[in-house]
Amino acid sequence: AQTVTQSQPEMSVQEAETVTLSCTYDTSESNYYLFWYKQPPSRQMILVIRQEAYKQQNATENRFSVNFQKAAKSFSLKISDSQLGDTAMYFCAFIPNFGNEKLTFGTGTRLTIIP
Amino acid sequence: GAVVSQHPSWVICKSGTSVKIECRSLDFQATTMFWYRQFPKQSLMLMATSNEGSKATYEQGVEKDKFLINHASLTLSTLTVTSAHPEDSSFYICSASATSGRPPTRPDTQYFGPGTRLTVL
């Protein structure tokens, strides 16, 4: 069984600063996908970034980037130049590469950007 | 791209009545749809997985007779909460994925609807 652990229940950072959210996971699979989803106060789940486990290159999406360490089973999210709109709950998630398998979510990190 | 809608966004009903929630993939064909329940300040809890034209697969502890799921087409899935009671009040979220991973989707990626808040009086 897969598990995803987010050890930071809450974080806050000043606007324009950089923040890193941590995520570790446990799996016996060799091929899988990892995700970060954002859930703002509207509660709409938004895909932030996606990483294929077979790719060594870390995924980036504008101000969002990940540090994927496969051997350590670590998948942290870095948000650069943080903005007020980044205030949200962030969930790390895992899916095995079998096609349409269910997501395993972490417990989430509540991030607050302070003006 | 990869837009999923849900209707209604919120609903209030009386105890004992049934409520239907619709989930639609607007710009892609969803081979699989998922239904989640989320309690305040908690993560998402998967209720069931449905593939188009097949019976839904329910997670352990989820009453299939209470939460009826239908996935009649590649763009529509419905969740019906039958004989709703106050303890069924929650935030229900659907997601959709496409096996093909053709744009606007990506393989093995779920795209979420905006959620439905159900309040049972």
Keywords:
heterodimer, A: 115 residues, mainly beta, 6-stranded mixed beta sheet, 4-stranded antiparallel beta sheet, 12 strands, 0% helix, B: 121 residues, 7-stranded mixed beta sheet, globular
Describe this structure in words.
The complex is a heterodimer of chains A (115) and B (121). Chain A has strands spanning 3-5, 10-14, 19-21, 24-26, 32-39, 46-52, 60-61, 64-69, 74-79, 88-96, 104-105, 109-114. Chain A is an all-beta fold and 115 residues long. In chain A, the strands form 3 sheets. In chain A, strands 2, 5, 6, 10, 11 and 12 form a 6-stranded mixed sheet that branches. The model of chain A has no long low-confidence stretch (mean pLDDT 94). With 121 residues, chain B is mostly beta strands. Chains A and B meet through strand 5 and strand 6 of A and strand 4, strand 5, strand 9 and strand 10 of B.
TL;DR of this structure?
The complex is a heterodimer of chains A (115) and B (121). Chain A has 115 residues and is mainly beta. In chain A, 0% of the residues lie in helices and 52% in strands.
